[in-house]
Specification:
Helix 3 links the parallel strand 2 and strand 3. The protein is globular. Helix 4 crosses helix 6. It has a single domain, classed as Rossmann fold (3-Layer(aba) Sandwich). The protein is an alpha/beta fold and about 240 residues long. It has six helices and nine strands, in the order ααββαββαβααββββ. A seven-stranded mixed beta sheet has the order 3-2-1-4-5-9-6, with helices on both faces. Bound molecules: S-adenosylmethionine (SAM). S-adenosylmethionine binds next to helix 1 and strand 2.
Length: about 240
């Protein structure tokens, strides 16, 4: 699966960056909320894609990780450490060394071979993230989420969608509902659901729903977008078992 994600983003990288204007409004809302969390902190930005939803001057250190080297090629700032790696295995990052770990619009790109495997993969990545955080550190997730009805449709169509996307060389995506994502975060971080701070991220105007793959092909009013965008922030209270 990792190879497919890598090939997909290596191939569409240029288009992806051109299409990213549609999402600027979301990055601005994320930035307002996370800038205070990252001041003088070590930040690990997973699936960074060469796009930053925060003020680069604030952290004491920025590590960006992405499975696609092409997605990171536009980053020239020598203060930023680039790591080309799969988020499923963050072996190069020392356990308990990160203050804030960020996933902006990336978790849905990391799926499994089946619906169940995709849920397991999500839990595995959240566990990796947890192990990298210092106690008191923060997990920041910005995600596109499905309604429970669309989630059931996704479950029914999982294998069919997967085979169609693979035929076109596109990596499979897997979207959660808000409840499913929050429950997984709470489980892995051993916190209560209410402890996860959740904020709406609102798109405005006209957006390009096909993003990197077919930029500019169609634009729809933001209010008709089938996904709900949320920012979730969880804190790691407990220590790290190494
Ligand atoms: C939709 S883009 C989001 C990029 C950026 N965070 C943003 O907000 O625009 C998803 C990013 O996740 C990366 N990605 C996909 N699968 C990954 C994996 N298994 N491990 C690490 N990064 C991955 C892609 O290469 C891509 O840069």
């Amino acid at each position: 699966m990792k190879d497919r994600e890598q090939k997909h983003f290596d191939r569409i990288s240029e288009k992806y960056h051109k299409a990213s204007d549609s999402w600027k409004i979301i990055y601005e809302q994320i930035e307002k909320r996370i800038n205070p969390l990252i001041t003088d902190k070590v930040v690990l930005d997973v699936g960074n894609g060469g796009l930053f939803a925060y003020d680069l001057a604030r952290p004491s250190q920025i590590l960006v990780m992405d499975v696609s080297a092409n997605q990171l090629s536009s980053i020239c700032d020598t203060r930023i450490t680039k790591i080309v790696s799969d988020a499923r295995e963050m072996r190069t990052i020392e356990n308990g060394s990160v203050d804030v770990i960020i996933f902006v619009m990336v978790l849905h790109h990391i799926s499994g071979n089946s619906f169940c495997e995709s849920i397991e993969t999500l839990e595995g990545i959240l566990s990796e993230a947890r192990s990298k955080l210092r106690p008191g550190g923060h997990l920041v997730v910005a995600e596109a989420l499905l309604s429970p009805v669309l989630f059931r449709v996704q479950k029914l169509c999982f294998q069919l969608t997967r085979s169609i996307l693979h035929r076109f060389g596109v990596s499979m995506v897997f979207f959660c509902t808000q409840t499913i994502l929050a429950e997984r975060i709470a489980k892995v971080f051993e916190i209560e659901l209410q402890e996860i701070e959740t904020t709406d991220l609102n798109l405005k105007g006209w957006v390009d729903p096909l993003g990197g793959c077919f930029p500019g092909l169609i634009k729809i009013p933001a209010s008709m977008h089938p996904w709900d965008f949320k920012l979730m922030i969880a804190s790691l209270r407990l220590g790290i078992e190494s």
